[in-house]
Protein: Peptidase S9 prolyl oligopeptidase catalytic domain-containing protein
Amino acid sequence: MIQVEHKWIKEIPVLHIFDERSGLEALPTVFFYHGFQSQKELYLPYAYLLAQRGMRVILPDAPMHGERWAKETDTEQAIYFWDTVRGNIDELPILVEALGAEGLMDMSRLAVGGFSMGAITSFGMLAQYDWLKVGVCLAGSSYYGHFAKALADGVAKQGVEFPFDVDARIRELAPYDLSAAPTKLKNRPLMMWHGKADDVVPFQYSEKLYEALVEEDMTDNVAFMVDEKAKHKISIEGMLAAVGFLEEKL
Structure:
């Protein structure tokens, strides 16, 4: 039977999903991140399918989201979008250390994945942590600097004033920007899914990263799945492909 456990790791609320038959074993583990203005519970279908295949799954709530939402407005969430992404990235070692101390993870088989903001988060994690073995990025962007500027311009056009220096804050994203140094991937397995009609996170970001990896001769372990019609919503085929990729590579 698949178990879903709600727990707090430090100050991070997570859902912990696993097959009860192997619940106390050190299992390959997937940290899967939700999208903007979403929450961890909505990604339980991914977790269930992964747990059925022998993986432990951790679904965290991002800062300002889910159980961590502190009544921030939509505008505040948009202004601090990249702070949320960086929060996810910087908190991953906390989750890994806590679960590792319980002997619940196979530390040689750790993966990250997510949709939209969760995929953006996962790209940054792959840039930061070479101990991650696999990544699944669904409708995301690794082009932190370029996308951050585009998002900031969009918010500014709505008459919103930022309470910080936008250009300086964008420069702070450089260490997390996988697109600036695609060799950081180091031939680790990566799956990207993106809909060509995406009207939230442009498809071109995924296409451009794949082309950069081709130029670096780093696509042996990369799967790029393109949905010709999809907007900013993953198809069932894409979800099942992501689950299958993690099962195969992890």
User: Anything to note?
Assistant: The CA atoms of residues 15 and 41 lie 8 Å apart. Helices lie at 44-52, 74-79, 81-101, 117-128, 144-157, 166-171, 203-215, 236-249. Strands lie at 2-9, 12-19, 27-33, 56-60, 105-115, 134-138, 190-195, 222-227. The longest helix spans residues 81-101.
